[in-house]
Design brief:
Blueprint lengths: L5 E7 L3 H11 L7 E8 L5 H8 L4 E5 L4 H16 L5 E4 L4 E3 L3 H12 L4 E9 L5 E3 L2 E4 L4 E4 L10 E4 H7 L12 H11 L3 E12 L15 H9 L7 H10 L6 H17 L1
Parallel strand pairs: 1-2, 1-4, 2-3, 6-11
Antiparallel strand pairs: 4-10, 5-11, 6-7, 8-9
Length: 273
């Protein structure tokens, strides 16, 4: 196997205990040719002091607390792309994840066997509480705008390996239209439409604190404030601007009008019913 450099990229905003566990997982890897780039977006829980004291080799970039996930990733990507070689990889991982010692080795072995720089390789995401598979690639039914686990139509950024040339050829994440959620799906869909392939390495298992994820369910009864948060908070996976942007910028043209109508009827049914 070639000794490719992996640039590990993550972003944090507080949640220091999660960051500690993630870094323990990273620095226990059997594969050693990696650098870590971490964006600390305005943490106030001692993250900065902890990193300086315990992980001085981590390349820490600072935000003011208003960057959100996608801009954090792009900040790190822009720095990495200036120094990386064309044979290198970027591995993006959420800070509420942990994994065993062989994950990086397994991903590279798998990519070398099938990829030759043309595959984005995702991981199997396991709910850290239930120990059940939460995400092993995403299948998309655009006619009904349904997303389900198990498929290769999109990949998350929870432990996904990207050849460096993907970003150099296709660009970076779309922070304008997807500042927090869905930027990973949009990017993987975009690169697939530009001739790359998506796959999942079954030997790469990532444990994720799934319940930490933002608002993703509609309550049975909504107050006015709850309805507003649901529709417009960036922490809501079903906020209205996000849903509109998915249809406008990602959904195939032949399904857009249908999905605008489905979105409208769902909102009216929930908010008026």
């Amino acid at each position: 196997m070639k000794n490719n450099k992996i640039y590990i990229l993550t972003a944090v905003h507080n949640e220091l205990e999660d960051t500690k566990r993630l870094l323990r997982s990273i620095y226990s890897q059997t594969y050693k040719n990696y650098d870590v780039c971490l964006i600390d977006d305005g943490s106030t829980d001692g993250t900065s002091d902890f990193l300086q004291k315990n992980y001085p080799l981590v390349d820490v970039l600072k935000g003011n607390g208003s960057l959100w996930w996608t801009t954090c990733l792009n900040l790190g990507l822009n720095k990495i792309l200036k120094i990386a070689n064309k044979e290198d990889f970027i591995w993006i991982i959420n800070n509420d994840c942990y994994f065993d010692r062989s994950v990086l080795q397994n991903l590279l072995t798998y990519e070398e066997r099938i990829g030759h720089g043309k595959y984005i390789v995702g991981s199997v995401i396991i709910d850290s509480k239930t120990k059940k598979i939460f995400d092993d690639g995403v299948g998309i039914d655009w006619e009904r705008m349904k997303f389900k686990s198990g498929g290769t139509d999109a990949l998350s950024t929870k432990g996904t390996l990207y050849p460096i040339n993907v970003f150099k050829q296709i660009g970076i994440f779309d922070a304008k239209h997807f500042p927090h959620y869905f930027s990973d799906y949009e990017f993987s869909i975009r690169v697939k439409r530009n001739g790359y392939y998506l796959t999942v390495c079954r030997e790469s298992k990532i444990f994720n604190r799934v319940k930490r994820t933002g608002i993703d369910k509609i309550p049975v009864k909504l107050s006015a404030m709850e309805a507003f948060k649901l529709l417009f908070s960036r922490k809501s996976k079903i906020n209205l601007p996000l849903q509109i942007n998915i249809i406008r910028y990602v959904c195939p043209k032949e399904f857009r009008i249908r999905n605008y109508w489905l979105l409208l009827t769902k909102l009216l049914d929930k908010l008026l019913g």
